[in-house]
Each structure stands twice: as C-alpha cells, then as structure tokens.
Specification:
Helices cover 74% and strands 0% of the residues. It contains four helices and no strands. α1 packs antiparallel against α3. By secondary structure, it is mainly α.
Length: 78
C-alpha cells in the first residue's frame, strides 16, 4: 500500500486511463474485421472508439487540475 496522499487530479487521471483503454480495446475490436475479411461492425461500434479521445481528455484534465492546485504561486497565496 502507498502512504502518499492522493492528489487533486489523481482520480481523474485514473478514470481517464480506464476510459482510454476501453476505447483502445474497442478500436482493436472494430478494426479486426477489416483485416479478417469479415463484415464490419455497425456504426455504433465506431462511436465507442471515441472513448479513447474522451479518456485522454479526462486524464489531461486531471493533470491540469493537479498542476493548478500544486503550483507554487497558488501555495504562496494560501
């Protein structure tokens, strides 16, 4: 177990990573029929692939939040 306290954006980064990997897995599954020569998936499957970008944005928001809260300028004001 880790004894370090959780930062402000750590949970956002974790959730963003999970959403990103779900989108990456969906992308691999969606692209597979193109290589296997089978019928492609319905368009909704391509929509699930967009979770990759959404996860990246969520994780990026977590990094920005952590940097914002831990910035030296903000620490001096408090």
């Amino acid at each position: 177990m880790s004894t370090t306290p959780s930062g402000a954006g750590d949970r956002l980064v974790q959730v963003g990573a999970i959403v990103f990997f779900v989108g990456a897995l969906a992308t691999l599954v969606t692209v597979a029929p193109l290589f296997l020569g089978t019928d492609p998936f319905p368009p909704i499957a391509y929509g699930v692939c967009m979770l990759m970008g959404v996860g990246f944005l969520i994780a990026g928001a977590g990094v920005v939040r952590s940097a914002w809260v831990n910035s030296p300028k903000r620490s001096a004001e408090l």
